[in-house]
Amino acid sequence: MKLSEVEKDRVIQMAWEDRTPFEAIDYQFGLKEADVIKLMRATLKESSFKLWRKRVNSGPSQKHLHKRSSDIKRFKCSRQRPISMNKIAKR
Length: 91
Prior knowledge:
By secondary structure, the protein is mainly α.
């Protein structure tokens, strides 16, 4: 699947979010976990990719719906800003 730059930025943002499961990325963009890993590896610096993989793989997994705690609720903070070109947009 060919993604635009804006879509790639959104997938990366969702992948970094602890509360966003891989299933949500698959539902919205049609990318399986392996595809997200490939995108992250190709887009991020090596050190950033390793840091992300360590976060995803450490402790109880939050990135899979069937493994996450039922007390986690999905919300959007009023202070959350969109990310553009992997940098926090300033308004």
